[in-house]
From TrEMBL, chain A:
Protein name in UniProt: Auxin signaling F-box 2
Keyword tags: Auxin signaling pathway, Developmental protein, Nucleus, Ubl conjugation pathway
Protein species of origin: Theobroma cacao (Cacao)
InterPro entries hit by this protein: COI1_F-box, F-box_dom, Leu-rich_rpt, Leu-rich_rpt_Cys-con_subtyp, LRR_dom_sf, Transp_inhibit
Cellular-component GO terms for this entry: nucleus; SCF ubiquitin ligase complex
Pathway: Protein modification; protein ubiquitination
MF-aspect GO terms: auxin binding
Record domain F-box: where: 4-45
Principal location listed in the UniProt entry: nucleus
Automatic annotation (TrEMBL), chain B:
Keyword Nucleus appears in the UniProt entry: yes
Gene Ontology CC annotation, any one: nucleus
Protein's organism: Theobroma cacao (Cacao)
Protein name: Auxin-responsive protein
InterPro entries: AUX/IAA_dom, AUX_IAA, PB1-like
Transmembrane segments: none
Length: 572, 191
C-alpha cells in the first residue's frame, strides 16, 4: 500500500497534529500504524485507567509529551471519595525506567506525590513543561524538586490544585543558571514566598511570557516585576491592594503603561477597587479577563473596567456583576466568544445573582459567543429560545440554575423547550450541561438534534428510562455521560451495552440502577470496567442484587481491572 | 422523625412540578421515593413564600450542588457566606461634619479594605465635600476606649468594635496618629 518511502510519510504525518487525526491515521494500515507510532510525540490519555504505562511506552518510543486525566469529572463536586485513585506514581516509575525522553507532562485530577515529582525531576534531562490542573497529594517540596533539578524548565503551571504549602523556599530552588522560564503560574499556592527570589528569577528570565502570582505577592512587588518584565503576555496579579494615592501605585501605573503585550489578565485575589484604574491602559488589548476570584470587585468599578475591554474574547466573572453588568458586557465586548459566570454565593440567597435577562442581553450583543458556563438564579424557555436564535454557534453550553429543579420562572413549565431550541439551533454543540425542571422530552430533543454532542451532564432530570435511552440511541458521538439523581434504571443501562465501548466513560449516581443491573453489564462487557463506589458512610454493602447502587462509574479499558482500587471501590 | 410533626412533608423533594396536584401532569416519582442525597429541600410553593434563611439552610444539604469545583468554592466565595451563617454586627458610624450617623454591618465585610470601601460609599460625598482634610477611622471598643482602627486582626476587631467614628485628622494632631493599615487609611484620605 506504500507508494512512498517511510520518511516521506513521516514528514506528511508531521503536519497532522490533532490526536483524533493521528489516531485515524494509525488505523489505515499496518505500515501507517508503524510509521505513525514511531513518529508520535504527543499522546493524550483521557482516562489513566484505560491503558497501562507499559503499553504506552511500548507503542510510542518517541513520546515527548503526555497528557493524563485521572478522576471522573464529578470528583470536582465532592462526589468521589478522596482515595479513589488516579495516581501518577506508576506512570512516572515506568517512564523513568524506560528510555523515553519525556519533556512535557500535563495532568488533570490526578493524585501526585512529592516522590513522583522528585523522580520526575531527576529522570528526564530535557524536561521542559509541567502542568497540573486540579491535582492533589503534593506539597511545595515536590515543586522545589522540579525547580531545582529541571535545568531547562520552560513551564511550571499550577492551576487550582490543593497543595500543602510548606512555606519552603521552592522559588529559591531555581538555580541561577535557570534562565529558560517562559511560563510560571503559582496562583493556587497559599503560603508566603521569597519575594526577592521571585524578583531575581523574573530578571533572569528574558523569555517569560506568562506569570501568575499568588496572594502572598503584594502590589509593590508586582510593580517591580512588571518593570523588569514588560514583555509579559499573560499576567495574574496576587494581592491587588494598595493606597491609590501612594508612590507605589503611581509607579504601578507607569509599569502597566509599558506593558504593551499583556493580552490576558487574572488574579485580583484580594482587590482594592479604587486601584483598578491603573489597569485601564492594558484593557484595550485584553483578550482574556478572569475576575472570578475577585468577589471584592463589583458594581461600578467592575463595569467601568469592562467598558475599557473592547477586544475581549473570553471573560470569567462572578454573578455579582448582575444582569445590568452583563448588559454592559453585551454592549462593549463584541468579540466575546467565551463567557463564564460563577456564583459568588453558592446557596442562591438571591441578592447577587444573574437571571435569564442577563443571558439574553449577552446573546443579543455578543453574536460570536460559542462557549458558555452560566450559574443563574432562574431561567425561562423564552429566553433560551431567544439565545438559541441569536447564537447558533455554541460549542459548549453549560447552564446551572442554582435551584436544581426550578421550572421556567414565568410559566412554571419544564425547560424542555428551551434546551430543545439550543440543541436544534447549535449544530456544532459538543458539550451540554442541563439544569432546572426537565422531563423526558428534553432528552428526546437531545437525541434527535445533538449530533455532534460529546459530553452531557445531567442532574435531577427526566421521568423514566426513556430519557436516558433517547440520548444513548441518538447521540452517536457521545463520549462522556454523567448523570446524578435521575430516575434512570437497569432497562436504560442495559439496552445497548455495546454503546459504552464507543464512549470514554459513564457516571451514574443516585439513580435507579441496581447491583444486579451493574453485574449483568459487567458480565456482558469484559472490555469495560464497572466500578461500584461505596460512600464511606455505608459500612456494609449488601450483596442483594436488588439494592440500588449509589455510585457507578464505568469506562472502557484495554488493560482490565485496575489493581490500585481502594476498599470502598468494588470492580465487578 | 421530628420533621413529620412539623408538617414538612411538603418540602420533600419530588420529581414533579412544584405544588403537587395543583399543576398539570404529575410526573413520575412516587412520594415515597425520596432522593437519597437530600434531607430536605424546599421548593417554591406556588402560594407560600419560604423564607430565605430556610431555603439557604436546606439547600446547603445537597451534596455537590451547585456544581462548583471545591477549589473554587474555597477560594472565591465571599467569606461571609461560608457555612451560610452571616452574623449581623451593626454598629453606628459617625463622621465629623456629617449631619447624621449611619449604620454598617461589620459581619458583611471581609477585612479592613472592604470596610474602607463601604465607608467610602456611605460617606463619599461628605468626604469629598470637606476641604482637603484627612480622616482617621477610630472605634470604641468593649472597654469604652477609643482605638485606632487597623491595628488588630480583622476578626478581633469586629468582635470588640461597638461603634465607629471617622475623625478629622486635624483633631488627632499631636497624638502621633500617623499609620493604620495602609489600605484603610489610604482609602479614607480625601483625594
Amino acid at each position: 500500500m506504500n507508494y512512498f518511502p517511510d520518511e516521506v510519510l513521516e514528514h506528511v504525518f508531521d503536519f497532522i497534529s490533532s490526536h483524533k487525526d493521528r489516531n485515524s491515521v494509525s488505523l489505515v494500515c499496518k505500515s501507517w500504524y508503524k510509521i505513525e507510532r514511531f513518529s508520535r510525540q504527543r499522546v493524550f490519555i483521557g482516562n489513566c485507567y484505560s491503558i497501562s504505562p507499559d503499553r504506552l511506552i511500548a507503542r510510542f518510543p518517541g513520546l515527548k509529551s503526555l497528557t493524563l486525566k485521572g478522576k471522573p469529572h464529578f470528583a470536582d463536586f465532592n462526589l468521589v471519595p478522596h482515595d479513589w485513585g488516579g495516581f501518577l506514581d506508576p506512570w512516572i516509575r515506568a517512564l523513568a525506567k524506560s528510555r523515553i525522553g519525556l519533556e512535557e507532562l500535563r495532568l488533570k485530577r490526578m493524585v501526585v506525590s512529592d516522590e513522583s515529582l522528585e523522580l520526575l525531576s531527576k529522570s528526564f534531562l530535557n524536561f521542559k513543561s509541567l502542568v497540573l490542573v486540579s491535582c492533589e497529594g503534593f506539597t511545595t517540596d515536590g515543586i522545589a524538586a522540579i525547580a531545582a533539578n529541571c535545568r531547562f524548565l520552560r513551564e511550571l503551571d499550577l492551576q487550582e490544585n490543593e497543595v500543602d504549602d510548606h512555606r519552603g523556599h521552592w522559588l529559591s530552588c531555581f538555580p541561577e543558571s535557570c534562565t529558560s522560564l517562559v511560563s510560571l503560574n503559582f496562583a493556587c499556592l497559599k503560603g508566603e514566598i521569597n519575594l526577592g527570589a521571585l524578583e531575581r528569577l523574573v530578571v533572569r528570565s528574558p523569555n517569560l511570557k506568562s506569570l501568575r502570582l499568588n496572594r502572598a505577592v503584594p502590589l509593590d512587588t508586582l510593580q517591580k516585576i512588571l518593570m523588569r518584565a514588560p514583555q509579559v503576555v499573560d499576567l495574574g496579579t496576587g494581592s491587588y491592594v494598595h493606597d491609590p494615592s501612594s508612590e507605589v501605585y503611581n509607579k504601578l501605573k507607569s509599569a502597566f503603561q509599558r506593558c504593551k503585550s499583556i493580552r490576558s489578565l487574572s488574579g485580583f485575589l484580594e482587590v482594592a477597587p479604587r486601584c483598578m484604574s491603573a489597569i485601564y491602559p492594558i484593557c484595550t488589548n485584553l483578550t482574556f479577563l478572569n475576575l472570578s476570584y475577585a468577589p471584592g470587585l463589583h458594581g461600578n468599578e467592575l463595569t467601568k473596567l469592562i467598558q475599557h475591554c473592547r477586544k475581549l474574547q473570553r471573560l470569567w466573572i462572578l454573578d455579582c456583576i448582575g444582569d445590568k453588568g452583563l448588559g454592559v458586557v453585551a454592549s462593549t465586548c463584541k468579540e466575546l466568544q467565551e463567557l463564564r459566570v460563577f456564583p459568588s454565593d453558592p446557596y442562591g440567597a438571591g441578592n447577587a445573582a444573574v437571571t435569564e435577562e442577563g443571558l439574553v442581553l449577552i446573546s443579543a450583543g455578543c453574536t460570536k459567543l460559542n462557549s458558555l458556563l452560566y450559574f443563574c438564579q432562574q431561567m425561562t424557555n423564552a429566553a433560551l429560545i431567544t439565545v438559541a436564535k441569536n447564537c447558533p454557534n455554541f460549542i459548549r453550553f453549560r447552564l446551572c440554575i442554582l435551584d436544581p429543579i426550578k421550572p421556567d420562572a414565568v410559566t412554571n413549565q419544564p425547560l424542555d423547550e428551551g434546551f430543545g431550541a439550543i440543541v436544534q439551533s447549535c449544530k456544532g454543540l459538543k458539550r451540554l450541561s442541563l439544569s432546572g425542571l426537565l422531563t423526558d422530552q428534553v432528552f428526546l430533543y437531545i437525541g434527535m438534534y445533538a449530533e455532534q454532542l460529546e459530553m452531557l451532564s445531567i442532574a435531577f432530570a427526566g421521568d423514566s428510562d426513556k430519557g436516558m435511552l433517547y440520548v444513548l440511541n441518538g447521540c452517536k458521538k457521545l463520549r462522556k455521560l454523567e448523570i446524578r439523581d435521575c430516575p434512570f434504571g437497569n432497562a436504560a443501562l442495559l439496552e445497548d451495552v455495546g454503546k459504552y465501548e464507543t464512549m470514554r466513560s459513564l457516571w451514574m449516581s443516585s439513580c435507579e440502577v441496581t447491583l444486579g443491573g451493574c453485574k449483568t453489564l459487567a458480565e456482558k462487557m469484559p472490555s469495560l470496567s464497572v466500578e461500584i463506589i461505596n460512600d464511606t458512610d455505608q459500612m456494609e454493602f449488601s450483596l442483594d442484587d436488588r439494592q440500588k447502587v449509589e455510585k457507578m462509574y464505568l469506562y472502557r479499558t484495554l488493560v482490565g481491572h485496575r489493581e490500585d482500587a481502594p476498599e470502598f471501590v468494588w470492580i465487578l | 422523625m421530628a420533621k413529620e410533626g412539623l408538617g414538612l412533608e411538603i418540602t420533600e423533594l419530588r420529581l414533579g412540578l412544584p405544588g403537587g396536584g395543583a399543576h398539570s401532569a404529575q410526573h413520575g416519582m412516587d412520594k415515597n421515593e425520596k432522593k437519597r442525597v437530600f434531607s430536605e429541600i424546599s421548593e417554591d410553593n406556588e402560594n407560600g413564600k419560604i423564607s430565605n434563611d430556610q431555603k439557604m439552610q436546606s439547600k446547603s444539604q445537597v451534596v455537590g450542588w451547585p456544581p462548583v469545583c471545591s477549589y473554587r468554592k474555597k477560594n472565591s466565595f465571599s467569606e461571609k457566606l461560608d457555612g451560610s451563617k452571616a452574623s449581623k454586627i451593626y454598629v453606628k458610624v459617625s463622621m465629623d461634619g456629617a449631619p447624621f450617623l449611619r449604620k454598617i454591618d461589620l459581619g458583611m465585610h471581609k477585612g479592613y479594605s472592604d470596610l474602607a470601601t463601604a465607608l467610602e460609599m456611605l460617606f463619599g460625598e461628605a468626604l469629598r465635600d470637606a476641604e482637603s482634610c484627612e480622616f482617621v477611622p477610630i472605634y470604641e471598643d468593649k472597654d469604652g476606649d477609643w482605638m485606632l482602627a487597623g491595628d488588630v486582626p480583622w476578626e478581633m476587631f469586629i468582635e470588640s468594635c461597638k461603634r465607629l467614628r471617622i475623625m478629622k485628622r486635624a483633631d488627632a494632631k499631636g497624638f502621633g496618629v500617623l499609620r493604620s493599615r495602609e489600605a484603610l487609611n489610604g482609602s479614607l484620605k480625601n483625594e
